[in-house]
Amino acid sequence: MKKWVEIRKSGNFVELAKEYGVSPVVARILRNRDLLSKEEVNNFLSFNENILHDPFLLPGMDRVIFVLKEKIEAGKKIRIIGDYDVDGISATFILYKGLKYFGADCDYVIPHRIEDGYGINIKLIENAVSDGIDTIITCDNGIAASAQTDYANECGITMLITDHHEVPFEDVGGERNYIIPKAEAVTDPKLPDSSYPFEGICGAMVAYKLILAYASKSDSIDAASFNELKEELLEFAGIATVCDVMELRDENRFIVKKALKSVARSKNMGLRSLLKVTGLEGKALSAFHFGFVIGPCLNASGRLDTSLKALSLFLCEDEEEALNRAEELKNLNEERKYMTMTEAEKAFEMVDSMETVPKVLVIYLPDCHESLAGIIAGRVREKYVRPTFVLTKTEKGLKGSGRSIEAYDMYEGLNKAKDLLTKFGGHKMAAGISLEESNLEEFKKRINETADLKEDDFVDSLRIDMELPFRFADLNLAKELEILEPFGVGNDKPIFAKTHVKFLTGKKMGKNNNVGKYRIMDDEGKVYDLIYFGDLQEFEDYVRREFGDETADNLHGDRVLNIYMNICYYVSVNSFRGVESVQYIMQHYQ
After folding, report:
1. What digits encode the pLDDT tens for the residues 135-164?
2. Is residue 432 located within the same domain as residue 485?
3. Total domains present in the chain
4. Does residue 510 lie within any of the structural domains?
């Protein structure tokens, strides 16, 4: 069961409400999100482009633009090398469309997940030499490519690196010695000399900033056509920000909020086709749709085929072809879902059979498609609340991905076992690794011995904004909460608690009978409808343990229950046939 943790940030919420022009409930939520000053609150509540930071504050950006302008004006051949996930696909699209707009002679390459692995490699550099490429510019990769950059330099290729990942380092006498590739120019918000105000941007955002920076140094662009291009590129920066699990704070929140409005009416034929085949055409979009509908279709191309399929979709200008390509991505994602479910069940069985569950789980699924390791690691991490690595067998040894919990810095942990790895990279919450099979058992041992984790770290917690009686969570509040959207990492959906809630009746709804609907009563005797989109079988099992078999059997039989529980819930606006009402949605129970 989850541990409920009420966020107890202090403040005079009545006075803050007057100052910010919001209700006391929203004022408290803003304080819970660590928004302290009036300027921070105004930036959060306003939809103002001024929140975007100057691209030239990114370290090395001025040098990147200087070199690019020289190369473009000289007609040099430029190759963009991206990555196979949503962020990499989006960053590649942004750079390609943007640089072509400025007249660049450029093409693109996205490494194949299995044949090439992550990031730029020697083979890609050799291919560039054979193709007469003068300059390589990376996006969403490259910061860990020191050896590859040295090789490119030896081959006479100019290297420009744009990335957002952690900079590799060596621990020398207790101090970090950062290893920065010797490229012609490097920009990354996480560089040690960075003064960029908000380092939590994705690779596509760095690419978007680069195009804005280039435009500011160009005298010959048409304002109208560039603004149209800028809106299209922003859509992909917004999608990538959500799919790369960036915090929806600061400029990220502005970009995503604007992208949600723009994507719904996008002029990009491929993106419109993807909305159509996934049933999102004409719908109001949320960050959920970016992260759990659009994103998985793009990722599926890189997992089971090639990410070039996704990129070619967004560059497509024929409507029928675009629809066919979008349908292909959707079908690939359906295949990916089935494969993931099968392998995840194997992983669960392995953990359940362990006598003692280790602090860090290292699960070996030799026959699993290597592209699914990260998804399965995430599923295992979610179920068992443990940092998790899932490894698969390849021709070149073991490869895998890790997903972490808040209390464990995965990148730091891997640094303590790097002598056992042939390759690794990532950040606090996720990583990719390669190692020889002979090192597997020692890796399991080392990664656990060096993990400073306590039992409390393995309890999943649900952060609650406040206890709130249902009568205060009315339609007005539900509408007011919409100003806090989009919700996601770093800007959680507001969650409220209510104790001693009486459940009167319950039933299943929905096309697949997978939604619970309950009649509930509060302390004042007022009756409400409560919706639950979670695991109904798990809910029934809980009721069976707490209240007995008869009550559990009646839970979804539309029969009298008369049981009391504490619940966590959020509210939303429900519109049906033009009539708006507040909807209470259960998040958890105990």
Report:
1. 999 999 999 999 999 999 999 999 999 999
2. no
3. 3
4. yes
